[in-house]
Design brief:
The chain folds into three domains: 61 residues, SH3 type barrels, CATH 2.30.30; 61 residues, Nucleic acid-binding proteins (OB fold (Dihydrolipoamide Acetyltransferase, E2P), Beta Barrel), CATH 2.40.50.140; 59 residues, Nucleic acid-binding proteins (OB fold (Dihydrolipoamide Acetyltransferase, E2P), Beta Barrel). The protein is 0% helix and 53% strand. The chain contains no helices and 16 strands. The protein is flat. The N and C termini lie far apart (50 Å).
């Protein structure tokens, strides 16, 4: 058991018969009344984010989770298939458990979050940045800009379309942020 003084971003707790991770928290000591902690909690099972207030000093149950390295193998009608990098054990996950699945490509390494007590997979976390090859992009034309941040749509190797600067051409590799789904920079070979 822990108390509200142990809150930190990323801490996993058991609350209302579900597992939540703390996304954001703030200790508040009003001029009148007892102190409390405002939190934003993200459900590890459904992905929903809720706001909750805890009274200061309240005891909470901390959930033990483990992050295990896996490699993405393929996707079919059953789901997404992964292989553990150390034991070579294979598992299948539903698409709802994977945030940013449009960035998965064969051979990519990911982390699968497990509830340590029940050995059940909770979610699949992609790396924050991935390198993708641009498979289709219209050529940029000089003088085609109306501002300094001119962009155009480009299709990457997984089939997703994102906006890239006009200087990015077909066949080049780019770094993409999997959290915001945005272009970051061009990658040299």
């Amino acid at each position: 058991m822990a108390s509200t003084t142990d809150f930190r971003n990323g801490l996993c707790i058991e609350y209302n018969n579900d597992l939540y991770t703390i996304v954001q928290f703030q200790h508040v000591k009003p001029g009148k009344g007892p102190a409390f902690v405002r939190t934003k909690l993200k459900s590890l099972t459904s992905g929903k984010v809720i706001e909750n207030t805890f009274n200061a000093g309240v005891k909470i149950s901390v959930a033990r989770i483990e992050r295990r390295p896996y490699q993405f193998l393929y996707h079919d009608d059953i789901g997404f298939h992964f292989m553990h990098l150390e034991t070579y054990e294979q598992i299948s996950l539903e698409p709802a458990m994977i945030e940013g699945q449009e960035f998965l490509k064969e051979g990519q390494e990911v982390e699968i979050v497990y509830h340590a007590d029940t050995e059940t997979p909770l979610s699949c976390d992609l790396p924050p940045f991935v390198v993708m090859k641009v498979t289709y992009a219209e050529p940029g034309v000089k003088g085609d800009t109306s501002s300094s941040t001119a962009t155009k749509p480009a299709t990457i190797e997984t089939g997703m379309t994102i906006n890239v600067p006009i200087f990015v051409n077909e066949g080049e590799k780019i770094k993409v942020d999997t959290r915001t789904k945005e272009y970051v920079e061009r990658v040299k070979d």
